[in-house]
Write a structure and sequence with these properties.
Blueprint (H helix, E strand, L loop, with lengths): L25 H4 L3 H8 L17 H8 L10 H9 L7 E7 L2 E3 L5 E4 L7 H11 L1 E3 L2 E9 L2 E7 L31 H5 L1
Antiparallel strand pairs: 1-6, 2-3, 4-5, 5-6
């Protein structure tokens, strides 16, 4: 009978020490009898999927872990769109979105990165407000789950070379989208 292998990836488990946890990380502080027993019976280690000190997003790290080259990485949105069964046409680009709460009249300060109690109906209503055709580019929002979705742009001369605008923290000034190429990106103009 062939041996069976179980690969357990504790993705996102790394953290920082917190004073309220006696200067330990949440993992160091937690009671983990199942993980402890699994570790006793296993080969364990730490893997740098790209190079030491270079922190990757989950999706890129998993692609590299399973043998793909970094150059093959299409971006998280394309992976998520594929997983949701939403195909992109040649003249379309997609952006991953989350409805968030902000305060102030500008510059906006992020209050919550996600709107936890947003109903499916209200998410669809918000999506309708930002969908339409502007400057010959059709924009449509698609619901994913909770307060998440996709913004699909369709038109000529669009580029997906846009920076991320999620600060990955709460109560920070919201980031602006920036073009990653020298010419001004039409998607950013539309935003």
């Amino acid at each position: 009978m062939p041996l069976k292998t179980l690969l357990v990836i504790l993705d996102g488990l790394g953290d920082r020490c917190h004073t309220e946890l006696d200067n330990r990380t949440p993992l160091e502080y937690a009671k983990t009898p199942v993980l402890d027993e699994l570790a006793k019976r296993s080969e364990t280690g730490i893997l740098n999927t790209l190079e030491p000190g270079y922190c990757l997003n989950t999706d890129l790290a998993h692609m590299i872990l399973f043998g793909y080259d970094e150059a093959d990485y299409p971006g998280r949105c394309l992976i998520d769109l594929y997983g949701e069964g939403i195909p992109l046409k040649k003249n379309q680009i997609g952006l991953r979105t989350s409805w968030a709460s902000v305060t102030g009249d500008g510059p906006y300060v992020l209050k919550e990165r996600f709107v936890p109690d947003l109903s499916h109906f209200n998410a669809l209503m918000l999506g309708e407000l930002i969908s339409g055709t502007f400057n010959e580019v059709h924009i449509e929002w698609h619901f994913s789950h909770d307060s998440h979705g996709f913004l699909i742009f369709e038109g000529e001369g669009l580029s997906s070379q846009i920076s991320d605008s999620d600060p990955f923290t709460i109560i920070k000034l919201s980031w602006l989208l920036n073009p990653m190429i020298s010419k001004l990106n039409r998607v950013i103009q539309l935003m």
